[in-house]
């Protein structure tokens, strides 16, 4: 259970990779995106009843807000995530704190049912979201693969392809998946497997710039 002093400390830190403010919530589908992003990254706290400018405005109904959170977690997130809800009273205003654990079963998917523009029928969609600074962003294919491979045994070998990669990075400092695939003349699927294994081993780093990923050598 959080105290009002702990609540104030979180609010003063502002929104970041582990803290998000929501003045109120109406849509389980929308808040589920934040819950998925926290579970897929480093965990975090959603403060409902706090404005973007750090004003604590409170929530109108504790019961209804918790019901929305529970519906979000059970209907719009797969697989299930671990979270707890706490209500903190601050100057006669209630703030709902939703604490989401970083998951050991990544990736988690956000489930939505957008309406098709032609048929007007709803179609189920699944997307992986992660936190970048104070935003929820769709994970790239490489980032999803990295999550999926976390539980697999790590086997690393430094063959000709890896040596070519290291020499290239020594000279040009960064490389994309397509560039590496072309450099060593292999499919992007095989190239991705090599790169993700090296990221898991801590030999190279994966970076995201807009919608494009690139890789660099890890700092020695």
From TrEMBL:
Q: Which SUPFAM superfamilies match?
A: Winged helix' DNA-binding domain
Q: What PANTHER family does its record include?
A: GLPR-RELATED TRANSCRIPTIONAL REPRESSOR, SCHLAFEN ALBA-2 DOMAIN-CONTAINING PROTEIN
Where is each Schlafen AlbA-2 domain found? 15-139
Source organism superkingdom: Bacteria
InterPro entries in the record, alphabetically?
Answer: Schlafen_AlbA_2_dom, Schlafen_AlbA_2_dom_sf, WH_DNA-bd_sf
The UniProt entry, under Gene3D superfamilies, shows: Schlafen, AAA domain
Alphabetized Pfam families for the sequence:
SLFN_AlbA_2 (PF04326)
What is this protein called in UniProt?
Answer: Putative transcriptional regulator
